[in-house]
Amino acid sequence: MGKIFTLLLLFSYILFAEVINMEATPEFVNNTKMKIIDIRTPQEWRETGIVRGSYTLTFFDERGHYNIESFLNELNKIVKKDEKFALICRTGSRTGVVSNFLGNKLNYRVVNLRGGILNFIKNGYKTQKYK
Q1: Tally: H helices and E strands in the chain
Q2: I need a surface site. Which of 11, 101, 112, 115 has the fewest CB within 10 A?
Q3: pLDDT value at position 18?
Q4: What is the pTM of this model?
Q5: Where are the beta strands (DSSP E) in 4-102?
Q6: How high is the pLDDT of residue 17?
Q7: Strand ranges for the chain from DSSP E
Q8: What is the pLDDT of residues 19-51, one digit of tens each?
Q9: Which domains does the chain have, with CATH numbers?
């Protein structure tokens, strides 16, 4: 009976965890109502601008440090745990790590926008100035 219970728990964990990797394109923004969380630093937001309507929430600071508890507290003010949302950074490297952590360890429904803001810009997307 214990093995069956353990298998059911493992199976339910896999069902609710979700990480989707998608190319960061202007079409993604234009064709979705999904919330986009930009995990870059304020300096990066100022340099390139941000995706219109996105939420700015730094994960790694300029020195590469992070505070998971603080990040999750702020993230949970923006999205519900069962709500699908997208993460974006500069090139997709940071969001790859953070997406896998959130989706596979904490059961969030995450879309990792591969290529990041630079891919958006390369494909003609006009960013919004960060204030």
Answers
A1: 7, 5
A2: 11
A3: 79
A4: 0.84
A5: 18-23, 35-38, 55-56, 84-88
A6: 58
A7: 18-23, 35-38, 55-56, 84-88, 109-114
A8: 999 999 999 988 989 999 999 999 999 999 999
A9: 18-122 (3.40.250.10)
